[in-house]
């Protein structure tokens, strides 16, 4: 039976605070420490698990938008693995592609056109003649944590909490290896990638994104595997452009064309979407992005997550071990994670685990002694370039992009 959009949407929960999987998921890599016992935890939604879904995908994702599909991972599930199993991986599509609503390996022939000084069209199967390399990396939607901007003023788009992020292992061939025989045109400064699929708004052009060529040439992959398995259509297969350290929108799914150009594409998704103002806006201020007043959403800012305990949990007074993860864009190293329980008056440094790669997240932990009462924990990270998470993110913007502000977790201690 072919998959339909409704069947895919049924693979996601309408609301996501479930604490356990209904279907076992094989762990990939080291499992995270078992969360400590709490007096009370946020209750799962009362609705029953759906009976129809995508094989290999948990039904407990939080569904924000049916078309194009947008689902995020509850932190109660995300915290169970250092490397996020594909079954738990969030989904954020800008386009729809027939046959893509499946967690099975993408099937059928697929051609990829590459244009340097000269051009070539390859069957995806031809990529097998190049060495396979793998990169463990954070994959994060540019709108992740968008709902946090709403503390200042409402923002548009799916109201992502903190689960439109994952730590995964992409495998494929180095883009530089494939482009080397084609040559780089004189004056080329940008790599432009185009993906297949149909838009959900009338008269929109194909999905295209451009990124700085010099910054990504040595790290970009033509990815054909995810977590050691063939890349599914649901996550951009059979081939996806992967640029470690960049927000997910730049990791173009269902890749069909790559070109090396002097200027960025003038496509809608480069010039009208995924842009941030160059001048700070007041919360609620209207903004229409142009190439003169905004910048593209490219590299990720330093960011941390606290996922043990979770918002709303009730803890026993006394020593409490906090756990979470933090990451950077890979250009600079993660230097510290620190926690405040007094509104930022004082901060305590957490212990960081080692880095699997410059682009992967790093688990952290810290034991605090908490007295009884209502508490709010603040968490922030900093990198070797001197960047520290600000109180309110990259700056309020109407589309809610790139929130990396201090995380605030309210809980009760008895």
TrEMBL record:
Domain Oxidoreductase molybdopterin-binding residues, every copy: 109-269
Transmembrane segments: none
UniProt xrefs under InterPro entries: Ig_E-set (IPR014756), MoCF_OxRdtse_dimer (IPR005066), Mopterin_OxRdtase_euk (IPR008335), OxRdtase_Mopterin-bd_dom (IPR000572), OxRdtase_Mopterin-bd_sf (IPR036374)
One GO MF term: heme binding
Keyword Metal-binding: yes
Keywords: Metal-binding, Molybdenum, Oxidoreductase
GO terms (BP aspect): sulfur compound metabolic process
Domain Moybdenum cofactor oxidoreductase dimerisation: 298-411
Statement: the UniProt record of this protein carries the keyword Metal-binding: yes
Cofactor: Mo-molybdopterin
Stored CDD domains: SO_family_Moco_dimer (cd02110)
Pfam families, alphabetized: Mo-co_dimer, Oxidored_molyb
Protein name: Oxidoreductase molybdopterin binding protein
Lineage: Bacteria, Thermotogati, Deinococcota, Deinococci, Trueperales
């Amino acid at each position: 039976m072919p998959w339909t959009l409704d069947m895919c949407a049924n693979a996601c929960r309408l609301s996501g605070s479930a604490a356990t999987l209904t279907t076992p998921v094989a762990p990939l890599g080291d499992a995270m420490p078992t969360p400590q016992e709490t007096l009370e935890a946020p209750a799962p939604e009362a609705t029953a698990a759906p009976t129809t879904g995508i094989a290999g995908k948990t039904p407990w994702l939080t569904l924000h938008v049916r078309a194009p599909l947008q689902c995020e991972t509850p932190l109660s599930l995300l915290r169970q693995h250092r490397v996020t199993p594909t079954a738990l991986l969030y989904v954020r599509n800008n386009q729809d592609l027939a046959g893509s609503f499946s967690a099975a390996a993408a099937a059928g022939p697929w051609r990829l056109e590459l244009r340097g000084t000269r051009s070539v069209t390859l069957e995806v199967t031809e990529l097998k003649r190049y060495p396979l390399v793998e990169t463990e990396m954070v994959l994060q939607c540019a709108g992740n944590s968008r709902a946090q901007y709403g503390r200042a003023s409402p923002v548009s788009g799916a109201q992502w909490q903190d689960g439109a992020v994952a730590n995964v292992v992409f495998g494929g061939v180095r883009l530089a290896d494939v482009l080397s025989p084609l040559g780089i045109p004189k004056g080329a400064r940008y790599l432009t990638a185009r993906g297949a699929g149909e838009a959900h708004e009338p008269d929109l052009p194909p999905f295209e994104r451009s990124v700085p060529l010099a910054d990504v040439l040595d790290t970009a992959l033509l990815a054909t595997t995810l977590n050691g398995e063939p890349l599914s259509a649901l996550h951009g297969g059979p081939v996806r452009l992967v640029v470690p350290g960049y927000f997910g929108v730049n990791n173009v799914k269902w890749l069909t064309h790559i070109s090396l150009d002097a200027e960025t594409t003038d496509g809608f998704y480069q010039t009208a979407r995924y842009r941030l103002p160059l001048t700070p806006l007041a919360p609620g201020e209207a903004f229409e992005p142009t190439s003169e007043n905004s910048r593209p959403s490219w590299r990720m800012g330093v960011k941390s997550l606290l996922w043990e305990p979770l918002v709303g949990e009730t803890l026993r007074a006394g020593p409490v071990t906090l756990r979470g993860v933090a990451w950077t864009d890979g250009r600079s190293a993660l230097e510290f994670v620190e926690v405040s329980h007094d509104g930022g008056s004082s901060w305590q440094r957490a212990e960081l685990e080692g880095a699997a790669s410059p682009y992967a997240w790093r688990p952290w932990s810290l034991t605090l002694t908490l007295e009884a009462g209502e508490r709010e924990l603040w968490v922030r990270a900093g990198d070797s370039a001197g960047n520290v998470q600000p109180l309110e993110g990259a700056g309020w913007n109407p589309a809610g992009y790139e929130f990396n502000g201090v995380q605030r977790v309210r809980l009760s201690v008895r």
